[in-house]
Amino acid sequence: MNRFEGKTAVVTGGGTNGIGRATAARLVKEGAYVFITGRRENELNEAVTAIGRNVMAVPGDITKHADLDRLYEAVAARGRGLDILFANAGIATFATIDDLTEDDLSRVFNINVTGTVFTVQKAIPLLNKGASVIVNVSTSADRGAPSMGAYAASKAALRSFTRTWANELKDRGIRVNAISPGPSDTSGVAELVGAENIAAYNETLAATLPIGRTAHPDEMAAVVAFLASSDSSFMLGANVLVDGGVNQI
Q: How far apart (Å, rounded) are the C-alpha atoms in residues 85 and 124?
């Protein structure tokens, strides 16, 4: 398929070996030119090499306005506006209410919420009519999993913003929707629990999922691509749970 032939996309958090990189690769495969950004330049360069074509890395931190400005200046310089924005960058932390620190809370909300808000705000002048914005939320936003309070609350905030932005931008011909991934086998999870613990962690998680396994990032990328395309043209403000059934049955 070439659903995105001639389209321009931005994927934040696109360097790590996870949903962002998988989505960038999927969009390129279907014809898009993709800008990826993230804090780790080496990983961004690895992603560019892995994807192979029609992708540009713009290193940056979504919590820094100057970095976002530099990203969108690169997009503007291409001269075709912006058709797809996947606001994917985010972090998680494990801490119960007994252990949560002010630094933990500030860091999670600064990246997941504030960084995403300005990622979207600064993209608006470039968004073409018919553009699609997809926000990475989480199944955690609808659950009360122990130790995930700060992360879940930040993602619940993004779910709320998705509804508001969909309403505010609809008259400009811009659709805003969200994806809520369930447990996925990504490098971000490995960093959170430790690479030496990831196999056992995924096995434990898989036992809690009706589908019996964790997700592969490519499975999430397929849904992001759907939300980015005209195949989802009647969807607005929606939140697609891609969760292996954990929030469903």
A: 10
pLDDT digits (tens, 9 = 90+) for 226-236: 999 999 999 99
Rounded to a whole number, what is the distance in angstroms from the first to the last CA of the chain? 33
pLDDT 10s digits, 128-163:
999 999 999 999 999 999 999 999 999 999 999 999
DSSP line for 34-87: EEEE-S-HHHHHHHHHHH-SSEEE----TT-HHHHHHHHHHHHHHTS-EEEEEE
Residue ranges of the domains in the chain?
A: 8-241
Helices 116-123 and 149-169: crossing angle in degrees, nearest 10, is 20
3-state secondary structure of 212: coil
CATH label, 8-241, candidates 3.40.710.10, 3.40.50.720, 3.40.1280.10, 3.40.640.10: 3.40.50.720
Structure tokens at 88: 């994917």
- Enumerate the active-site residues: 151
